[in-house]
Design a protein that fits this description.
By secondary structure, this protein is α+β, with helices and mostly antiparallel strands. The protein is built from 2 helices and 5 strands, in the order αβββαββ. A 5-stranded antiparallel β-sheet has the order 3-2-1-4-5. The radius of gyration is 24 Å and the shape is elongated. The termini are far apart.
């Protein structure tokens, strides 16, 4: 009577059990990487000086991300919107900063005023 090797005859299940740990480690690694990167940016911003400079709003943009969730009997979908403004200082250098939706609505392209920021963190804009 012949015997089967441990992986013989398992077919698709054997493949899944081999691939799952690899995918799990990759996903976990990406989560850790993004968390470390976020903490690093937060720390750099905290160490940066708070600056106020005269700027002009040159552009605004939004970035919408959609999320879909399937449960047993229903389907849920929602979206998140991130708001950005690009500011140009008198030297011609530009910087794009993430801002709140409220601030996004208050700014208009061409506005001139004083931008206050700390690293990559937007703190405010006072229109002249």
């Amino acid at each position: 009577m012949g015997s089967l090797a441990p992986d013989q005859g398992m077919g698709m299940f054997g493949l899944i059990f081999r691939i799952f740990p690899i995918v799990f480690i990759i996903v976990l690694g990406l989560i850790v990487f993004r968390a470390v990167r976020g903490v690093g940016e937060w720390s750099r911003n905290n160490r940066s000086p708070e600056l106020s400079v005269r700027t002009r709003v040159v552009s605004k943009r939004t970035e919408v991300s959609h999320h879909h969730h399937n449960t047993n009997d229903s389907f849920h979908s929602h979206s998140d919107t991130a708001y950005y403004a690009t500011f140009e200082v008198e030297s011609g250098d530009r910087m794009e900063l993430k801002i709140s939706g409220r601030e996004f609505g208050m700014l208009a392209e061409g506005d001139i005023g004083k931008l206050t920021f700390q690293g990559t963190r937007y703190l405010g804009f006072e229109r002249e």
